[in-house]
Structure formats: structure tokens, C-alpha cells
Amino acid sequence: MASPEPFHAKLERLRGFSGSPEAFWALYLDLIASAAEASQGVVLTPVGTQGERNWRELARQSAGSGVPAQFPPEVISKLEEAARARGLAEAVAGPPEAKTSVIGLAIRTGSEGPSPLGVLVVETKTGRDAEMRIQRLLLLADYPSLHFATRSATVARADLAKVTGTLDLLNQLNPFREFLPAAMALCNEFASRFKCTQVSLAWLDGRYLKLQAVSNLEKFASKVEAVRDLETVMEEALDQDDEIVWPSAPGSPAIVREHGLYSSRHKVPILASIPLREKGSVVGIVHLHRADTPFSAADLAALRVQCDQAGPWLAVLWRFGRGGVRRWRERVRAALGKLWGVENAWAKLGAAAGALVLLALVVVRIPYRVDSTFILRSANQVLMPAPFDGFIQSVQHESGDAVQKGEVLLDFDETPLRNREASLLADIERYRGEAERAESGGHFAELRIAQAQESESRADLAIARYQISQSSLKAPFAGVVMEGRHREELGASVKQGELLFRVARLDGVYAEIDVDERDIQDVQPQARGQVSFTSRPGEAFPLLVTRIDPGGTVKKGSNVFIVRGDLDKAKDWWRPGMTGVAKINAGWRSLGWIAFHRLVDFLRLKFWWW
Q: What is the distance between the alpha carbons of residues 427 and 453, in angstroms, rounded to a whole number?
């Protein structure tokens, strides 16, 4: 059976410990348990507020095969309160005959938060033995604060070493104005600083890495198999855009196949490939060999920082060391790579869509049409007024009715005219008799007077008979009644010349289009277009512009020009006065002109003096 480890050996092992905090607390608990000769122990850290205090274990141990003791939270809280006040508190656990005590040790870590509490189950002692145990534990209570302070100082020194090492490296590279000497200096510096047997640097030339420098080796043949193997193993780091270490750590996601093959083929046990970057992109790879000691986390961190700082300067030297044509070609390739790469995909997609839209606005041309409202007019229409003063007797047709030539529209009451005709006939007979008597009596003056009165009555009779013939208003041609609603006016009197009907033909209708002043310059005679009626918006009919009035007309607050457009054969349902929308072809225009010409014209009018 192995003897227990001496107390001083445990203390020495803890003094040189540099592992994780979890492992530290296990070693520290073992140390204070050994100092107190405890059978069981636990290190607890408080969680939550003072009123709702819980405890989380940092480490636990139990000597032998004993079951670890479980202490209620209220017991731990009392121990903590007493230990915080005096540094250490001891309480009897169980009955006095058990001779077992529980010690609470307030552990100081140097941090501002709640400090851990060490709880130890020990044998009850009195006198000098108890006093010596208390002194040992109080001396060890400050050890975690010393450990963590030393650890922080070590980390700070390591960070300072990284900074000073990086500054020193940049100072070594700064005097060089050519790429190859700077690359060689970098390889030699890394070989010296990190105790490497060989350091190589490969640079991205086009799409492939090419070996540029090897430490302590001025010249090498680029086609040697060892050089090709080096480039292949560094390509593995380039493809993954990450550093690779061989042997790889357990659970590492990196693919290390080529590194493993290179290690076994060239008998190099320890490898590391670190990328050199400029503006986030890999431009080169530094490859390091070691013969015995693996690369530590501090070594890799220092390598990473120094490579990140050296990469941009080497990239500048590489570009300026190239010929003018090759330098411009690389710039174009880099620009195209940014343009077609996957970075900022949505922004690039939006920019491409915007460029396509802009190109379409400039290049794509489509037919442009001036649109405006129109009203259907008839080229042949007749106004039918009342031929004489009279009374409406009957109405056969009203506005909107289709009529044929000769159809009666309205009848006047003929009774007054017939009465006048009879009266005039009687007057004629009377005047004829008077003339005969005057002639037989030789009264020639009276004869002439009677003959004149007879002639006057005959003229009035002709007028009366003409009015009787006009007592029925008839359609002059086949068409449609545009105006005339008189059914509700039966028996009403009308005056001579009063408009009763307006009749229009349907075979001579045309569209009267109101074109706005801002569009009239785009409308030319003989231009073609289409009209669509409000009553049937789903149908369109061809149009031919035949006349443009030279003068403008104000309608609804805007200045318009009347444009006449002839239509094809009229449909049965067309009626003069119908309205709709007319679209007149005005040539081909670009999408951009169609979309923005209104805005451009507005700005020209507003800022024409510029």
C-alpha cells in the first residue's frame, strides 16, 4: 500500500500549479484537509443573494470509503457567518461522544465577490493540538488569493511579452524594402524565438501557394519533392482558413491529413501552420517544425499575434515588388473577387438588381402612349326646332331612341290650324263675292281692294296649310335622338324656334379627345391609338388622329387641346356623348424617360434659369 503524500510535497505541487481552476480547488482542498487531518472536506461557493443563499461545490473529497457528509444549508450559513467574522469557526457535529467537529474556513481569493468557504470534518481536539491546527488553516486561507494574483501577473507578463515580441518583430522587418529579404528575416526570427528546427513561408500567387523562404536556407529548388510537399501541407491550412497543429488536440475539428502524412514521411514529429492575413483574407502561410517540445497555447497565441501584424507589411512589399502589369492584374482580380465572392451576398444582390433596373431604364424601349379622356361626337346631326307656335299633342320618341328616316317624333295639335284654314277659306269666298259685285257695278276701286284682300287671304291660307303639313316632326335620317324629352309636356305650348329635338347619325361618329398641354407635342396627325368606353372597359377600338385644334381650351382648371380621332365602323350600342379613355401612340421611349419625364419637366420649369 502506497504511503500518503507528505504535506510539504502537496504544498510544493500546488505552488507550481498552472492548470484549470477546477483542478486547483481539488488540490487546495487536499492540502487543507491534510493540514487539518480531516476525514472529509468540501469547498463551497455562495450563489444568490444573502436572503436566498445557495451553495455550489467547487471540490469534494472523502478519505477512505466513508460516505461524504451532507450538511443542511442552515448549518453552512451559520458556519459562514462565524468564519467571516473570525476567519475560522468550529462546531461539534453529532453527540459529544462521537468526538467529531466541523470546521468552516473563510477562504480569501482576492476578488471583490463572495469568497468560497472550506468545510472540513475533523476529529475534536483540545489544547495545543487544536491551536496548531487553527494556525495552519489560517495560514493556508490566504493561499488562493496569492495563487490567483500570481496567475494574473503571469498572464499579464505573457501578454506583455506578446506585445513586446510583436513590436520587436515589426522593428526587425521594417528596414526591409523587398519581399524576399523580409520573408527570410521573418523565418529566421520565428526559428530563433520559438526554438524551431525549420520555418518556411509560402505566399499566395494567383490561386496557389508558392514557397518563398526557408529559415537558414538562402536558395532552394522549387521543383524538389520536399518543396512540393511543403506547399501541399500549407495548402491544407489555406483551404480551411485556419491554423493547424500536429499532433492535433483531441476533438479538434481541423482536417490534418496532409500534416500527418508530411510528419511521417519526413520524420518531423511536431508541425504548425499559421496563416498570414491582410484585411481578413489569407495571403500566406508560415509553417514551423519542432523536434521535441509541442507548441504550447502561449506559443500559438504569440505566433498568431505576430503573424497578424507581419502579414500586412509583407503584403505591401509583395505588391510593390511585382511588375506593373502583374500588380494591376492582381488588383483587378482582387476587385473581381470581392465583387463575385460570397461576402455581403445580400448587398451585392441588391446592387446587381439595382444595376439591372438602371440598365433596363436606359436601354429597354417600349411604345409610349398619351392617354386622356374622350367623348363620342357625331359629325352629322340636325337641330329640330318648333316650326310655329302651338301645343304638343303626342310624342312618339324621346332622347336615346333610335329612329328611321321619316319616323314621326312629335305631333302638334292641328285644331287651331284647321280652324284658321276654314276661316281663311271663308274669307277668300267672301272677298271673291265682293270683287264680283264691284266689277258688275263698275266700282273698280272696290274691285281692286277685294282682289288684294283675297290674295292676302290666299297667302295666309298657304302658310296655314304649310304649318298643317309641319304639325308632325319627322326624323330627317336614320339615327338616334340626342335631345328631346317631351312626354311629360303633353298639351304644353311651344314657341316658334324653340329647340325640340337633336337627331344625330351613327355612321359618322368620332372621338373628341382632350389632350393636356404638356402632352400635345407628343401627338401627331395620322397617329394611331385605341379607345375604351367607360361602359365597356374590356374592349378597345382602333383610332386615327385626323385633326388637332390649333388653340387651347380651359377645362376643369387645365389647358387642353381638342384632338379629333376617327373610329372604324360604329357599333350598334355606340351613342354620341359616351365617354372613356383614349390612348394615342407617340413613338418608342425608354423606360427611364417614361418613368421620369414628368419629374424632369417639372424641375426644368422650376429651375429653368439655371
A: 9
CB 496 within 8 A of CB 476: no
Report, in this order, helix, strand and coil percent for the chain, each rounded to 5: 45, 30, 30
What are the C-alpha distances in Å from 490 to residues 168, 395, 496, 519? 119, 8, 17, 50
Cell reading at 212? 518563398
Q: Are 199 and 183 in contact (CB under 8 A)?
A: no
Cis check: omega of the bond before 247, within 30 degrees of 0: yes
* Closest to 417 in 3D by CA, of 492, 453, 469, 459: 469
Residue 339: Cβ-neighbour burial (10 angstroms; 0-12, 13-18, 19+): exposed
Residue 443's SS3 state is: coil
pLDDT above 90 (res 368):
yes
Considering only CA atoms, which of 497, 466, 479 is closest in space to residue 407?
479
Edge-to-edge strands, sheet with 198-205: 208-214, 198-205, 281-290, 270-278, 244-246
Poorest-confidence range of 20-29, 478-487, 557-566? 478-487
Alpha helices in 95-193 (DSSP H): 127-141, 143-173, 179-193
- Specify whether the CB–CB gap between 66 and 40 falls below 8 A: yes
Counting Cα atoms < 13 Å in the Cβ hemisphere of 116 gives: 22
DSSP per residue, 232-286: HHHHHHHHHTS-EEESPPTT--S--HHHHHHHHHHT--EEEEEEEEETTEEEEEE
d(CA 512, CA 518): 18
In angstroms, rounded to a whole number, what is the distance separating the alpha carbons of residues 237 and 3? 50
Q: Convert the pLDDT of each residue in 244-289 to its tens digit.
A: 998 888 878 888 899 999 999 888 999 999 999 888 888 899 999 9
pTM of the model: 0.42
pLDDT at 498: 86
pLDDT digits (tens, 9 = 90+) for 498-532: 888 888 877 778 899 999 998 999 999 999 999 99
Give the C-alpha separation, 406 to 478, whole Å. Answer: 8
**What does 180-222 look like in DSSP terms, one character per residue?**
HHHHHHHHHHHHHHTT-SEEEEEEEETTEEEEEEETTBS---T
